[in-house]
Amino acid sequence: MKFTLVINGAPWSSPSAHTALKFAETALSSGHEIYRLFFYQDGVGNASRYCVVPQDEEDIPARWETLITTHGIDAVVCAASALKHGVLDTDESERYDKEGANLRSGFTVSGLGQFIDAATQSDRVVSFVN
Asked: Domain of 33: which CATH number?
């Protein structure tokens, strides 16, 4: 089965990001495919390199990055949500005259068109909400 996952929750304020991560890991280990991960609303916080996680907490953003790069998963961060939450790639940081990009490796910034494409290409779309 081919899945697209929509992650709406921030890694630090909602269990949905962790639940989505566990779902993705389990799906992949069971032989399923993740067509795309779409990080939306507060979920874009999972794509920031500048999150500093306390030593006694799990580093959910780092685990997403590892999963994405290890399995070559297409991971899209909603452009509008990313801007509102200060998650910028190199192009956006230059466009808005910010000091630097903070988008984690493996993630790309794009629009809702990528979500529509994913919905049409996947067998199931699973949304993880706050």
From this structure: 3.40.1260.10
- Confidence bin at 130 (pLDDT 50/70/90): confident
Active site residue 78: yes
- CA distances (Å), origin 9, targets 16, 31, 129: 5, 26, 6
> Residue 21's domain spans which residues?
2-128
Distance of alpha carbon 79 from alpha carbon 89, whole angstroms: 10
What total number of domains does the chain contain?
A: 1
Q: Tell me the pLDDT tens digit for each residue of 73-126.
A: 999 999 999 999 999 999 999 999 999 999 999 999 999 999 999 999 999 999
Q: Which of the following is catalytic: 78, 88, 103, 118?
A: 78
